[in-house]
């Protein structure tokens, strides 16, 4: 049987149910307004109150403007500069000729900067002057700003006694980071600031000369320990940074906390464990260090000494190493692999020597590279090397003389770990080259000052 239109409307009216939210008046309004079929219709928007995003209870009120509260148009206050600032402004707007000297241009800009600084406290805003009624009817003339300077600039002086520009003075210094801008790992934008901070740290964590004086441990005992640690380091295949950091931690700890001689080896292996944790991806285990000491110490002894060392140094392990500065200096000098390897050999000879503990790592690295260049091909210390290493060739000569004496001393020393290590093919047999027995090295060693 066909269903009439009225019947279908009644059926829809009985079946359609709308959820009413008591907190939402809009849904209630939907139930009150229906069309001819009994379905809810969309409420009409009003100018006073419009519902929007009702599900999240957000109300948007229509913005209305009260005609009675309209204000008059806002006028811009005319700002006039003082006479002194106007003269300075005309001076800045003046375009000096290309023939003016660099000195006069710098002095002009300096004078302007000083005037602006001195007049900064003067009020800039002044009240608008009153204009008589007689002058109001007169046509206003356009004001003109004179761009002619009060004096004619002098011609450029090209005499030799004038100071050179900063860019011209740095023509001999090469930008060694110019090609590294695309490599984010080289941080070319911050690398110079990083090395400046490293030079600050090496001064902060310095070691005093003769710090073992009055202790049971002597400089000779320390040299024997470091020579043995070089063998342990080579046997464990650790990074080069680990060895330098181990020696740095030993010297800094013994300077603060004297130990008896029967604990010196324990201090050495514990410092290498700490350095391995700091530098290595996979540090040796405690059992490895117990084995390397022939069970002279137990795991508990190493743990206790580790805690004592870390507390004494206040957990500061970030002292810069010679290797960090050597890599920067080798890049600045554009040296080859032989010069870089020879410089590493010279640096590693210094870690055994007790008389070299108080020198900064940056000075040792620069002196080692300078001696390496002198021995291999006689190349000079360039301005670029002086700029990036912060050491001139003249200031490095005392270090070069000391390193020369260490090379000659290593030939006869019983502590042969470093020399044997660099005699392998892995390091190009650098400790056996003929240049280390040349007359140049002998002359440099003879010029060294006697040890105090």
Architecture blueprint of SSEs:
Elements lengths: L4 H11 L9 H8 L16 E3 L7 E3 L21 H11 L8 H17 L14 H4 L29 H4 L21 H14 L14 H18 L3 H17 L7 H16 L6 H7 L6 H14 L9 H12 L3 H14 L10 H16 L6 H7 L3 H20 L4 H5 L17 H8 L6
Antiparallel strand pairs: 1-2
Q: What is the N-to-C order of secondary-structure elements (H for helix, E for strand)?
A: HHEEHHHHHHHHHHHHHHHHH
CATH architecture of the domain at 322-446: Orthogonal Bundle
Mean pLDDT: 76
- β-strand percent reads under 5%
CATH overall fold name of the domain at 322-446? Cyclin A, domain 1
Largest sheet: 2 strands, antiparallel
Shape: globular
User: What is the CATH domain class of the domain at 322-446?
Assistant: Mainly Alpha
Low-pLDDT runs of 5+ residues are 15-65, 73-79, 89-110, 112-124, 142-148, 156-168
Proportion of residues in helical segments: 40-55%
The number of helical runs is 19
How does the helix and strand content classify structurally? mainly alpha
